[in-house]
Write a structure and sequence with these properties.
Blueprint: H1 5-17, H2 23-34, E1 60-63, H3 72-75, H4 83-94, E2 115-118, H5 132-149, E3 155-159, H6 160-174, E4 176-177, E5 190-195, E6 205-210, H7 215-219, H8 225-241
Parallel strand pairs: 1-2, 1-3, 3-6
Antiparallel strand pairs: 4-5, 5-6
Length: about 240
């Protein structure tokens, strides 16, 4: 008897959390867990690779870059525990894709509706800059996550240019056709990728671009709440248009 998508995702998440492929990232994530920020001195850091978060049958995938050293590297849940995540979860709640507006820690009651969150790089990198070699080493985890999500996946929301490029690469490896010329990232950008393989029922996936909700973008007004809400609301509209329950 084959395992369900939920069982497959649980098994994948466990494997992700044990990964030690990249010595530099292993050293950095564990160092951050020892040298804690004063505000979190009494907390035990996760300090491991961060698995995805959200249902295994989600029609929407949100991709970023990598965990923050004192955000999800601390909490163990994607996008949880830093200002970028605070911004993102508040928007997801406003458009009806999250059960609450705040994401503080695992076990805080937050549930996502039809959304899965993942990062192309699963460990916190120094200066938030993983090397090309580290990105390549981590890519198979996103590939396997996409394989589980693929039967129902309809939308990928890429946060930032790196998330956009990583998502295009991963979707291409999964069997969707990347348009030529290759779509360029912009806030609100939209690209449709057609399915070309017969491994799964054929359907298109739409890639949406959104500025990353980093403090640099939100504090300067480059990214506003209405801008974020518009992209996520568009993702929900596309996902629900195909009629899958």
């Amino acid at each position: 008897m084959s395992e369900s998508p939920t069982e497959a995702m649980v098994r994948l998440d466990a494997r992700v959390s044990r990964c030690r492929k990249c010595p530099r990232l292993v050293a950095w994530r564990e160092q951050a867990g020892r040298e804690k920020r004063a505000a979190y001195a009494d907390q035990d850091y996760w300090a491991r690779p961060v698995p995805g978060f959200g249902p295994a049958d989600a029609r929407i995938l949100v991709t970023g870059l990598a965990p923050a050293a004192h955000g999800s590297n601390r909490t163990g849940r994607m996008f949880t525990g830093d200002r970028s995540g605070d911004w993102l979860f508040a928007s997801l709640h406003r458009v009806g894709l999250a059960s609450q507006a705040e994401s503080v820690a695992i076990g805080d009651g937050l549930e996502l509706t039809d959304v899965r969150m993942a990062a192309p790089v699963r460990c916190a990198p120094p200066a938030n800059k993983p090397t090309p070699e580290e990105r390549a080493a981590c890519a198979p985890w996103l590939d396997r996550e996409l394989a589980i999500l693929a039967p129902r996946l309809r939308v990928v929301v890429a946060l930032g240019a790196i998330g956009w490029q990583a998502s295009l690469d991963a979707l291409g490896r999964a069997g969707w056709t990347v348009p030529r010329p290759r779509p360029r990232f912009a806030h609100g950008a939209e690209a449709t990728l057609g399915r070309t393989t017969r491994r799964l029922a054929g359907h298109d996936v739409v890639l949406l671009g959104c500025f990353h909700p980093s403090p640099h973008n939100t504090f300067t007004g480059r990214l506003t709440e209405p801008m974020t809400d518009a992209v996520l609301a568009r993702a929900r509209t596309i996902a629900e248009a195909d009629g899958l329950g």
